[in-house]
Design brief:
The structure is a single chain. The protein has one domain: Gcn5-related N-acetyltransferase (GNAT) (Aminopeptidase, 3-Layer(aba) Sandwich). The chain is of the alpha+beta class. α1 packs across α2. It is about 25% helix and about 35% strand. The relative contact order is 0.17.
Length: about 160
């Protein structure tokens, strides 16, 4: 798998929108409800890149197999931290190490940028918990009814951190 940083969203926007729609349709809690319209998906990707956001994609055979974002804090006293966000794997690429490789790549990019603390949240009962724990993330809290899944059911959220000094 090749991992690339996306700095021009136009090149990948349609494929990223399709990936986003498919993971939401599969039930992922990604801050959007099913059905996710083309317009909603395209609008999301139109607004994702900024000075505080780095976007990485994983490519297998020139197709996007997954994506992850690093959100850097814009707070003066939070310049040492970043959030792992929107880690998504295409349905056909799951269980092939794509998410792990993207997560590790994002961590290395954050470390290279001088970040020492990573944060993330995920569904309490979701499969991503095993990945995050196996990569050294520490569970520091749970919030009941934190977000809705793609079909409107309220779910608890788990919150993790990792020191990457």
């Amino acid at each position: 798998m090749e991992i690339k940083e996306v700095t021009d969203i136009e090149v990948y926007k349609r494929e990223l929108a399709s990936l986003f729609q498919s993971v939401v349709a599969a039930g992922a809690s990604m801050n959007y409800l099913h059905p996710m319209t083309d317009e909603t998906a395209m609008n999301y990707w139109n607004s994702v890149l900024s000075q505080q956001v780095r976007l990485f994609i994983g490519l297998i055979d020139s197709q996007i197999a997954g994506t992850v974002q690093l959100h850097y804090s814009d707070k003066e006293n939070g310049q040492h931290r970043a959030e792992i966000a929107k880690l998504m794997t295409s349905l056909k690429a799951r269980r092939k190490g794509v998410a792990r490789k993207l997560l590790q790549h994002a961590e290395q990019a954050a470390k290279a940028d001088g970040k020492t603390l990573l944060l993330l949240d995920t569904e309490k009962e979701g499969p991503a918990n095993k990945l995050y724990q196996s990569e050294g993330y520490v569970l520091f809290g749970e919030v009941p009814d934190f977000a809705q899944d793609a079909f409107g059911t309220y779910l608890a959220g788990n919150f993790y951190y990792k020191l990457i000094k």
